[in-house]
């Protein structure tokens, strides 16, 4: 039963003081698992299918130096350290002895006890950032939702914050979140923001051998502690205050959560979820949150598979976050994905009731590399022709067929190479149109084995072509004569009307 109460949302206004923002709302979610898990995936998310976000913070500077996305962590690795202690089963990503990021840091700046993260982040002074240009590119790519990494593990807020002095406005004189929120919404896309600061409690532990114990910088490095120590009251206030402030300022449609949520206790996480879900109810908008597949489940959240996917069709919508670059932040190393890879991955994801959130990595100066622009534009050109097989679709009774399959649902999958025998299916919301997405150039004759006589197909056409298609339904499947003048595409979509 709904009831009217007054909720007090504490929003930190400086490192030393907080003020109370009184919000009267019709509460529909309580801070319990059962209540929160009633939260439904937004219809806009089910329809959107494809989004873009950007790993772009001062960490980009370090990644350009050493090619290490966790530079603020590894720059302090003067001895061998494990990236994820005490989490078992995750690769260390270190060699014996000092990490190369530490070595490179010493070469350029000296010992981190003298020039630490508090100093390096101040070198992040972008001059070429253009939010309108970014939003134009995201729109051209065919994204239906987009936004920034609002704060990474590095503790630097990419907005004008009063909760922390370590923010883009104070340190670099601009507010990228404000600019992107305006430009992204102007183009009809949903605005999202990703939050990685749940992991910051662990992230700066190596700094305590260097400059991290200086009490003047406790608001960046946190109180000195060891892995596994409980969160401090100061950290809890900081964690929640940043989220509250961002929602108040920019009202994102989705709060995307990184892996660090495993460290946030339910008595801290559940009140946030209830307040955010209730915020959506009050404002009349559908909001969403996410949780990594390898972290404890968050009630009402969308499960996200980092650089991975599910094996089979899932009844509930889900998400993949992946990147076109070799890492999450920009580096000089070449990318590992092509536009064809992205299109194949997108088709596979959508056929199984998922959505793709694709990362791009701008330079520290705020420029999206031409190689990544080309990939996004190619994906967008494909979607202009074939988008009706992606947007606003729902899963068919069969996700796909062919030899290339995912052996097990999960993250961090190896690259798969799809063939013309690999087909992924989607269907229109009303169930009257089936789309067969062939993931490579088919031969003269194509047999869709999953399309049976009972599916009662009435017409067959090829998206992007006006040529008449010859076809026949047989006991073995739908046989299609592929046009001789088949246009060049990364994947070919046959529209099957029932």
Which word captures the global form?
A: globular
The CATH architecture of the domain at 3-57 and 128-195 and 218-306 = Alpha-Beta Barrel
Helices, by number, come to 15
The biggest beta sheet is recorded as: 8 strands, parallel, barrel
What fraction of residues sit in β-strands? 15-25%
Mean pLDDT: 91
Write down how many β-strands occur, each being a DSSP E stretch of 2 or more residues: 19
Q: What is the CATH superfamily of the domain at 3-57 and 128-195 and 218-306?
A: Glycosidases
Global structural class: alpha/beta
**Adjacency order of strands in the biggest sheet:** 3-4-5-6-7-8-9-10
Level-1 CATH class name of the domain at 3-57 and 128-195 and 218-306 = Alpha Beta
Radius of gyration computed on alpha carbons = 24 Å
Stretches where pLDDT is under 50 for at least 5 consecutive residues are 1-25, 86-94
Q: Which percent range fits the helix content? A: 25-40%
- N/C terminus separation: 43 Å
Please explain how this structure is put together:
The chain has 498 residues and is an alpha/beta fold. Among the domains are: 212 residues, Glycosidases (TIM Barrel, Alpha-Beta Barrel), CATH 3.20.20.80; 105 residues, Golgi alpha-mannosidase II (Immunoglobulin-like), CATH 2.60.40.1180. Helix content is 28%, strand content 21%. It has 15 helices and 19 strands. The protein has an eight-stranded parallel β-barrel with strand order 3-4-5-6-7-8-9-10. Strands 11, 12, 13, 14, 16 and 19 form a six-stranded antiparallel β-sheet that branches. Helix 7 crosses helix 9, helix 7 packs across helix 15 and helix 14 crosses helix 15. The protein is globular and about 75 Å long. The two termini are 43 Å apart. The N terminus is likely disordered. Belongs to the glycosyl hydrolase 29 family. It holds the Pfam family Alpha_L_fucos. Keywords: Glycosidase, Hydrolase, Signal.
């Amino acid at each position: 039963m709904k009831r009217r109460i007054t909720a007090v949302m504490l929003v930190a206004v400086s490192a030393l003081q907080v003020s109370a923002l009184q919000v009267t709302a019709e509460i529909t979610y309580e801070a319990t698992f059962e209540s929160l898990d009633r939260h439904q995936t937004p219809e806009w998310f089910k329809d959107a299918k494809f989004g873009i976000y950007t790993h772009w913070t001062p960490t980009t500077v370090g990644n350009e130096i050493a090619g290490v996305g966790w530079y603020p962590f590894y720059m302090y690795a003067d001895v061998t350290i494990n990236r994820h202690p005490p989490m078992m089963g995750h690769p260390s990503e270190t060699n014996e002895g000092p990490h190369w990021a530490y070595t490179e840091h010493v070469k350029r700046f000296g010992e981190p006890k003298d020039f630490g993260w508090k100093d390096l982040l101040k070198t992040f002074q972008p001059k070429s950032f253009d939010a309108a240009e970014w939003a134009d590119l995201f729109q051209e790519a065919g994204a239906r939702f987009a936004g920034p990494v609002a704060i990474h593990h590095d503790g630097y807020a990419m907005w004008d914050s009063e909760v922390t002095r370590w923010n883009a406005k104070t340190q670099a004189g601009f507010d990228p979140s404000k600019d992107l929120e305006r430009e992204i919404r102007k183009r009809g896309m949903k605005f999202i923001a990703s939050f990685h600061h749940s992991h910051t409690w662990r992230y700066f532990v190596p700094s305590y051998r260097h400059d991290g114990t200086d009490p003047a910088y406790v608001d960046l490095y946190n109180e000195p502690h060891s892995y596994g120590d409980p969160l401090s009251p100061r950290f809890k206030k900081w964690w929640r205050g940043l989220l509250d402030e961002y929602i108040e300022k920019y009202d994102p449609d989705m709060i995307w959560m990184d892996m660090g949520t495993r460290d946030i206790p339910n008595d801290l996480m559940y009140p946030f979820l209830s307040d955010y879900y209730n915020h959506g109810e009050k404002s009349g908008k559908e909001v969403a949150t996410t949780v990594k597949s390898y972290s404890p489940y968050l009630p009402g959240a969308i499960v996200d598979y980092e650089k991975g996917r599910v094996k089979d069709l899932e009844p509930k919508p889900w998400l993949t976050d992946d990147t076109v670059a070799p890492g999450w932040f920009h580096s000089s190393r070449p990318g590992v994905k092509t536009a064809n890879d992205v299109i194949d991955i997108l088709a596979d994801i959508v056929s199984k009731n998922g959505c793709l959130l694709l990362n791009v990595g701008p330079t520290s100066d705020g420029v999206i590399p031409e190689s990544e622009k080309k990939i996004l534009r190619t994906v967008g050109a494909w979607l202009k022709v074939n988008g009706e097989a992606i947007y606003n679709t729902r899963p068919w009774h069969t996700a796909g067929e062919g030899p290339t399959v995912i052996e097990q649902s999960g993250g961090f999958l190896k690259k798969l190479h799809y063939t013309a025998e690999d087909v992924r299916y989607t269907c229109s919301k009303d169930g009257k149109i089936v789309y067969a997405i062939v993931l490579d150039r088919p031969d003269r004759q194509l047999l869709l084995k999953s399309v049976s006589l009972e599916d009662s197909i009435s017409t067959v056409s090829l998206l992007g072509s006006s040529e008449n298609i010859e076809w026949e339904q047989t006991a073995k499947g739908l046989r299609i004569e592929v046009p001789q003048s088949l246009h060049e595409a990364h994947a070919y979509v046959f529209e099957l009307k029932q």
